[in-house]
Amino acid sequence: MSTPADKKTHVLVVDDEAQIRRLLRICLELNGYEVSEAANGQAGIEQAVAHQPEVVLLDLGLPDMDGLTVLKRLREWTQAPVLVVSVRGREDDKITALDAGANDYITKPFGTGELLARLRVIQRYGRPPANATVFTSGHLQVDLTTRTVKVRGRVVRLTATEYALLHYFVQHAGKVLTHGQLLREIWDSHDVAKTGPLRVYVTYLREKLETNPAKPELLITEPGVGYRLAWN
Q1: Which of 56, 116, 136, 146 would you call most buried, defined as having the most Cβ atoms within 10 angstroms of its Cβ?
Q2: Cα 30 to the chain's mean position, in Å?
């Protein structure tokens, strides 16, 4: 008899290409996942409602509706991590999908090793539980109640803006945050071309939090898109 500990992570694959679905099913099942499939957007939404998957792999080029529409419909009722898997490789496409609620984005063709790694990352994503007051990642510790930040046990002093930026990263640990999201949240700016303040404050945080600011391990740059706070 199976126990809750035996329960496999359920992944819903929404893609109109049968070969891609077959490849993903084989790869995922070999790595211990349970898989369900949908060949179009409407079927994907229905499968998500019926099966409540823990993760969704979503193509953007679906035959009946754009994948972004599916993503927005999903985000109306579920926060299950969504990994977009698409041939659309432009930065604008990635930014649009991330702004719409995707957790990450991988471009076809892709290596199965990278896909599985990104799956592991987005499964760790999530807001800290309401009763969790301390966030830890590597040598970084953030006490959300006292607003105390420590690196290797030593208190680090942050300005109000630095802490606000770090707090937002902590709330979305493991998730790629676009320049636009960060500018709107911290600076109330809708001019995504003016990323200067964001870049400056990310540099300030790296200087205070990273072992080697030139090779960051906590605040990771997603080129042309934004940043991600590593969570391990």
Answers
A1: 56
A2: 24
Q: What H or E segment, with its residue span, contains residue 200? A: helix 196-209
Q: Could you name the CATH architecture of 134-229?
A: Orthogonal Bundle (1.10)
Contact between 166 and 218 (Cβ < 8 Å): no
DSSP-assigned letters across all residues of 1-25: ---GGGPPPEEEEE-S-HHHHHHHH
CA distance 150 to 155: 4
Q: What is the pLDDT of residues 42-91, one digit of tens each?
A: 999 999 988 889 999 999 999 999 999 999 888 888 888 999 999 988 88
CATH 3.40.50.2020 is the classification of domain 8-124: no
Q: Where in the chain is the domain with CATH 3.40.50.2300?
A: 8-124
* Token pair in block for residue 79: 């926060």
pLDDT, tens digit, for every residue of 111-151? 999 999 999 888 875 444 445 688 899 999 999 888 899 99
pLDDT at residue 1 greater than cutoff 60: no
pTM beyond 0.70, yes or no: no
